[in-house]
Design goal:
Length: 177
């Protein structure tokens, strides 16, 4: 049902994509670091690569959410009674990833997942093998909406401003190619 689909996306928004979804005390993250015993770190760093771990989990989630079969199912299901359409789906997913950051700074976990999401929307839009022009059109519309929102966002700290400029550049380069 549409309610179940909205609830599932809301849960992902809270537990996988929210600004505080991966907030933890710095002391907890320190326990992920391997103990150094001897000289076993010749070719690799010792740090636990927190951002890579978080992004990996978020990428696996986006793998499913933006899979061509899922997008096709959303388009097809609307013809036989499903009230949760692809436009609503992408709008709510975009809000889960961007809305809370538009008035303030964007933390580094959110910066990486926002850029990943934008790159995946670009891939959906540009995929010539995809047989889903509705999904491609919605990806195009979503990219334009993200660009509009980021352009209107107030200035913030240096990291956030650089991130927003980078995302806008990536969207502009993809859509004006």
């Amino acid at each position: 049902s549409a309610e179940d689909q909205r609830a599932a996306l809301a849960a992902l928004g809270t537990y996988a994509f929210a600004p505080d979804a991966f907030a933890a005390e710095a002391g907890v993250y320190a326990y992920l670091q391997d103990q150094r015993r001897g000289f076993g770190y010749f070719n690799e760093p010792e740090d636990p690569k927190i951002h890579a771990r978080v992004l990996g989990a978020q990428q696996r989630t986006l793998d499913h959410l933006l899979h061509p079969r899922v997008l096709q199912r959303l388009v097809d299901a609307s013809t036989y009674g499903n009230e949760y359409r692809i436009d609503t789906y992408l709008s709510e997913l975009t809000d889960a990833l961007f809305a809370e950051d538009l008035k303030g700074s964007v933390n580094t976990f959110r910066q990486q997942v926002q850029l990943e999401y934008v790159k995946r929307l670009i891939a959906v839009h540009a995929d010539e093998k995809m047989r889903n022009p509705v999904a491609q059109a919605m990806a195009f519309a979503t990219l334009n909406e993200i660009a509009k929102q980021l352009s209107a966002a107030p200035k913030s700290d240096g990291l956030t401003n650089a991130h927003r400029a980078h995302v806008l550049h990536v969207i502009d380069a993809a859509l004006n190619d």
